[in-house]
Here is the input.
Amino acid sequence: MTETPLPPKPTPRADKVSLLRYLQLFRRDILSAQPARLYRAWMAEFRTPFFHSYMCNDPELVDLVLQKRPNDFPKSDRIREGLAPLLGNSVFITNGPVWERQRRIIDPAFEGGRLRDTFPAMWDASVSCVERLRARADGQPVEIEAETSHAAADVIFRTLFSIPIENAVASAAFSEFRAHQKAQPIVNLGALLPLPKWMPRFHSRAARRTAASIRSLITQLTTARMAAINAGTAPDDLATKIMTTADPVTGDKFDTAEMVDQVAIFFLAGHETSASALAWSLYLIALYPEWQDRLAAEADAVIGPDIPYFSIINRLKQARAVFREAMRLYPPVPMMVREARCPEKFRDRAVPKGAQVVISPWHLHRHERLWERPDAFDPDRFTTPNGKACLRSAYIPFSTGQRVCPGAAFAMAEGPLMLAMIARAFRIAPVAGREAMPVAHLTVRGKDGIWLSLTPR
Ligand code: HEM
Here is the structure.
């Protein structure tokens, strides 16, 4: 019997390398910079002259850091340094009372009922995405990450501001964002992880300029929206919801400037991640075409010819299973870093105050002592006892605990919907000689893009 080939996984580095080599590898790509033993270890300590960090793969430690005592493991200032030019004082990088207030105002916008209201905008973005792809469905190679980024940015602008990506300000912000990523390659995990202080953060002039330009475009949108709210003419979308929600504790609302910071993170966290997850989902169904047929059949049965209602999302079970499995194998946010606020003891090992604590969905999701066939693509696994158990204790693509992604339910509606719509419309195949290989930028991306060819079904 021939074995089904496994989906791509970076080759880990040798167990022992010099510090210099480690730092070099680390800056190039943190996934391949790690040794293979991390897929089996419950915990690993990295001690260099510049940083001291602990990777925790033991589900109990993950639970401790993210759920049980999150206030003792805040985000570190280094994360802020890396992202501040673009994100200002946004909810992604704040801690303590400032963060608590921001979440109290933001969270209601993403609750179940509101999600239902965003469905028409997600639907329109999915239809537009399929139309754009139809123009390219001639069997020639398509770099699909660029397409999924476009589609995910479209969803964000439509749901937040009721404007499609073709809107002049939206498309300018999207293209400035691409320029920003080029100008600031270190807006990757290297900036989030404990690099020594002296290592340049590369806030180049170009990066500062693009960050300022993105923020000025977002300012135009939020200023106009504030005026519309005051005039009673604002559309009922996520931006209006967030800007009119009073903090239940203090009674105050976001002013325009505070909203700019939040929109910047919704845009960054909401489109890069969803784009990555959708691109890998498409790549995986290209590698395993029997899943395309399952998704297409499901979509035909569930979606039908008319504009559907939100409830279809719950019925796209196969699409959800594929999207979930794609985020297990390629978690868009592969690692998260916290700082120990006081001395700790992890698995009988002393962890000093100030140590970096790394939670790695990448390793947890492929842990050899937790998952059966951890490197295999098997969306049906979530119906097995092992899959169900791991879903509870070893699956955290959206993090968990108080800092869990507020957009998780939003992303779990958008992703499977787009996946189902694309699978229904096209046959998708990998491109010979252009196999994808994951690397960690800000999110997990294809080293040289993710290439697919599409033909109409
Ligand atoms: C597949 C899609 C997505 C994935 C995998 C994802 C994943 C994550 C993860 C892992 C975090 C925690 C990061 C950390 O603690 O260091 C996070 C935070 C966040 N995400 Fe998402 N996300 C997704 C989509 C979205 C969307 C669509 C939005 C909004 C529209 C969003 C908004 C945010 C915000 C605001 C935070 C910061 C929350 C806080 O620190 O309190 N995300 N996301």
Q: What stands out?
A: Residues 277 and 327 are 6 Å apart (CA to CA). The pocket of protoporphyrin IX containing FE is lined by residues 91-92, 103, 265-266, 269-270, 273-274, 277, 332-333, 336, 397-399, 403, 405-407, 410-411, 415 (CB under 6 Å). The chain has 17 helices and eleven strands. The radius of gyration is 22 Å.
